[in-house]
Amino acid sequence: MNTRLSTEVDIVCVGFGPATGGFLAELARRCTGGSRPPPFVICYERSDDIGFGVSGVVTPARAIKASFPGFDLAEIPMATPVRHEHVAYLLDPVGASRRSWAVRAADATIVRAMRWALPFQTEALQLPWTPSFLRKEGGVVLSIGQFMQWVAGQVTGSGQIQIWPSMPVASPLLDGDSVVGVRLIDQGTDRQGNPVEGFTPGMDIKAQLTVVGDGPIGTVGRQLDERFGLPEGHNRDDWAVGMKMVVELPSHCGLEAGTVLHTFGYPEPEIFGFLYVHPGGIASLGIFVPSTFDNPARTAYRYLQHWMRHPYLWRHLEGGRLRSWGAKSLLESGRRGEPHLVGDGFARIGEGSGSTNMLTGSGVDEAWATGVLLAEGVAELWEANRPFTRANLHEAYVQRRRASWVETEGRIAEKARGGFQKGFIRGLIGMGVAGLSGGRLSVRGRPAPPHRRLPTIEEYYRGRIPSSEIDRMREESLTNGIPLHESLMKRAGWPAIPLDGKLLMSHQDALLVGGKVQAPSGYADHVVFIDSAACEKCGTRICIDACSGQAIAAGPDGKVAFDREKCIHCGVCLWNCSQARPGDSERGNIEVKAGAGGLHSAEN
Amino acid sequence: MDTPFQIVVCAGLVPDPLQTLEPAAGPAGPVLKNEMMLPLVIDPWAAHALFEAAALAKRFPGSKVWLVSLAPRAKLQQVMMTVAQKAAFELVALDSPAGGFTESAEIAAEIAAAIERLPGIDKSRLLVFGGWESASRGTGTTLQTVGERLGIFEQFQGVDRLDMAPDGAFQVIERIEGGRHQASACSGLPAVFGWATGELPEPPNNPQIGMANMRTVMPALNRARPVKIANEGLSFARVTAPNQRRDTKIIKDMAPGQIAREIVDWIGPEQ
Predict the structure, then answer these.
(1) What is the pLDDT at residue A422?
(2) How far apart are CA B204 and CA A521, in angstroms?
(3) Mean confidence (pLDDT) of chain B
(4) Are residues A468 and A572 in the same domain?
(5) Contact A187 B205 (CB under 8 A)
(6) Which pLDDT score is estimated for B270?
(7) Which residue among A219, A395, B120, B167 is least enclosed by CB atoms within 10 Å?
């Protein structure tokens, strides 16, 4: 079957995350019983099943609760109301953390010296209160995987809305500056995308409206950004990777369901951590490694293990068992990274539309709310039989969004993290000042793409590891096929992780036991190195160390190699590449295209 | 002109094969821990049967494929989002908390009754397909019992290939002991075919088939017949997960002989 087929629907959605969930739930409710038959809506999701590859959260759930009045979200598996919230500053118990002199001084003179007078416990300072902007009182601890499965069941019941997982969208269909639908991924190809046996060209799905909710690294959203650019003054250079686990807590763990812990200060000052307790002795826990942490050999997995081993956390986790594991990129630019929200025939919702609030550390509820706001507008336009033009969508959706709490709170948050561009302490001050002043005050900082900001490995470890030794480590790394960060961190004083095969395991075992990662055959490689010469001369190769799934490794002839079967589609390589793309200094040398497979766990 | 075939595929749902399964004691017998949270897939053996059924129906225009499945309705709805892109069929849903710890004879009785209720069913043109084995139980008895309850005694298990003639005569190749195959010829239908892996690859996802299927899948789910499985007279002496020992290493392009040798060494000498 080599002919490209085409079909028409009323609305096509790209990605089934919380934003699209909100859109479809609200649209299903509003378009029932109108003067026109409800629109026929198709949603395509890249992951192999609904709820794969997303993450556990604590959320105020204001918008989510409003969508399901009278329904107790705690009835969804792994959901429970927030009961206790704590924020803890973690000291460095191993002496390997890369702390500035100011942080070390504060640790020694304020925290340790005053420990008798402070709420100090197990190498951590637990703050006596949780700042108001971080609190999730009245909120819910959720497994987004379980929640999205439940939402899918609700919205597809009528048959008018269809959700199809395991079907990546390759690109938007453009007619001039209008989006007229999407093109699905080609199937039956080799790794380079060439047709092989069973080749089926991706179908064209034409629609009056294309709803783009494919997240911060979604291919359709990024192609629209390339085509239309970002609004003046907006940029997307502020990122983080969130790496997490779902853990069966040991029987001695006394943490009550609904407990929420936030940490900062360790394993590196810039790395924030979280632990949310679900019912049934299960916890979602993990770290955020931001792009402002300029370690050119950073590894989220190894840091996650060191974070778990911190005494403040390990007392709860020792003896626990890994159930699930995964990672995803977070667009920390928030509202500063907002793209053009609408155009002729399309609208953007969710995290990829700049809705994440990095001051409150909240994204799911905001994403859901943007979907609801779009559905309100779309339902109005549909009922009035008005076309989905840029002007109509602006009136129906963008104006609603501008008047919403998502916008108000997004504006407060948009400069809150600027200080982290200048260091950890200024970052904390900036965040606190912005939060407590309602965004009127902030510490400014302009993010830059990694190829303009990342130091070399030699520069980063200057004074700690001689260049000659780094050269030797590099050689060994190439010879033995192990990531460079293993040797660098060991040399920098990080202790070995005592693997127990249950909770502390090798990165590869976490992929298999936790992520259950796999990739169906017959698809092209979705991670592509644009200019191999740039990779060969790259001194950092941060793509290898930062890769959440160890899917990128040193290849033959000085090149880098991608193994699709290990990729979890977190997109970290996209925003970490330290080499500028030839002819486009704003982007790195790695392209991430539409791809199938990834995580196979719905507990995340 | 010969009448098209009626192909009924019996397929249960099982946990995604990559999940870690842990038996636990429930109030009414053994259960899988966190069963409701486990992602489910169509039983891989039965999935082969479905792909073969779709290919057969395509070869004989006018033939119809039904997919009869007994499972929790909500889970069935979710699995249909994936399966319905693969092959054209009409779903017959039976809503029941079926799993790996239910009495296969009771399930077989319900499925057979559902097949008997299909409108216009003509046993002289009927092929009952299913999995030779199941990922949720190793006995593989359900399909045989379905056939017996329907009064179909031409049964073939471990089927890898089926060649149908338009008049309903067929040749079938089954797996038998010792890694060998047995070829049989029959002059007519009905017959039961418990498929092994067949010869067809998993078809690509086809959005057009998915859209067309879903127009009938949702109504079928909405009228899913509730089924109570009593598990009468069933008791479990012991329920355990197989022992696992994980020893991971990643090596590319290893020769098959070397892989075999490593596995034998890893398992160790026969006790």
Answers:
(1) 84
(2) 10
(3) 89
(4) yes
(5) yes
(6) 65
(7) B120
Q: What is the CATH number of the domain that holds A249?
A: 3.30.9.90
Chain A, nearest residue to B200 by Cα: A198
**Same domain (yes/no): A369, A517:** no
- Per-residue pLDDT, B245: 66
Q: Does A153 sit within 8 Å of B78, measured CB to CB?
A: yes
Contact B39 A52 (CB under 8 A): yes
CA distances from A596 to A53, A220, A537, A544, B205 (A): 12, 15, 30, 21, 11
A432 and A577 fall within a common domain: no
Q: Decide if A68 contacts A162 (C-beta within 8 A).
A: no
Confidence of residue B254 (pLDDT cuts 50, 70, 90): confident
| Chain B CB contacts of A146 below 8 Å | 37
Please indicate if any CB of chain A lies within 8 Å of the CB of B271: no
Same domain, A436 and A530: no
Q: Does A196 touch chain B (CB under 8 A)?
A: no
- B204 vs A146, A200, A518: nearest CB: A200
- Measured between CB atoms, which of B77, B201, B250 is closest to A198? B201
B241 touching A (Cβ < 8 Å): no
pLDDT digits (tens, 9 = 90+) for A120-129: 889 999 998 8
Residue A604 belongs to a domain: no
Q: Which of A294, A313, A331 is the last residue of a domain?
A: A331
Nearest to B111 by CA among B234, B220, B9: B9
* Residue B92 confidence (pLDDT) above 70: yes
Q: What is the three-class DSSP state of A546?
A: helix
**Is A338 a member of any domain?**
yes
CB contact under 8 A, A167 and B207: yes
Looking at residue A350, the DSSP 8-state letter turns out to be: S
Nearest CA in chain B to A148: B78
Q: Which of A405, A432, A447 is the last residue of a domain?
A: A447
Whether B258 and chain A come into contact, CB under 8 Å, resolves to no
Helix residue spans in A403-518 (DSSP H): 405-413, 424-436, 450-453, 457-460, 467-480, 484-491, 507-509
pLDDT, one tens digit per residue, over B18-77 is 777 888 888 878 888 877 778 889 999 999 999 999 999 999 999 999 999 999 998 999
Residue tagged 């290990």 (tokens): A566
For residue A341, give its domain range: 6-75+143-235+334-413
Whether A24 and A149 share a structural domain: yes
3-state secondary structure of A87: strand
Retrieve residue A532's tokens: 């191999």
Identify whether residues A409 and A345 lie together within a single domain: yes
Q: Which of A5, A321, A512, A600 to mutate to test the interface with B (most CBs of B within 10 A)?
A: A600
Is A587 inside a domain boundary?
A: yes
Average pLDDT per block of 10 residues along chain A, 604 residues long: 88 97 95 88 94 82 94 91 95 94 90 84 90 89 93 87 95 98 96 92 97 96 96 92 95 96 95 95 96 91 98 97 94 94 98 94 95 98 97 98 97 88 87 87 84 89 93 88 89 94 92 88 95 89 93 86 94 93 88 93 75
Measuring CA to CA, which residue among B68, B65, B73, B85 is closest to residue B40?
B73
Q: Diameter of chain A by CA atoms? A: 75
The Cα of B221 is separated from the nearest Cα of chain A by a number of Å equal to 9
Same domain as A388, residue A340: yes
A350: left (phi over 0), alpha (psi -120 to 50) or beta: left
Burial class (CB in 10 A: 0-12, 13-18, 19+), A112: middle
Identify the CATH class of B6-226.
alpha beta
Structure tokens at B59: 């070869």
Kindly report, residue by residue over A435-493, the tens digit of the pLDDT.
888 888 888 888 888 888 889 999 999 989 999 999 999 988 888 777 899 999 999 99
Say if A1 falls within a structural domain: no
Is the separation of the CB atoms in A517 and A597 below 8 Å?
yes
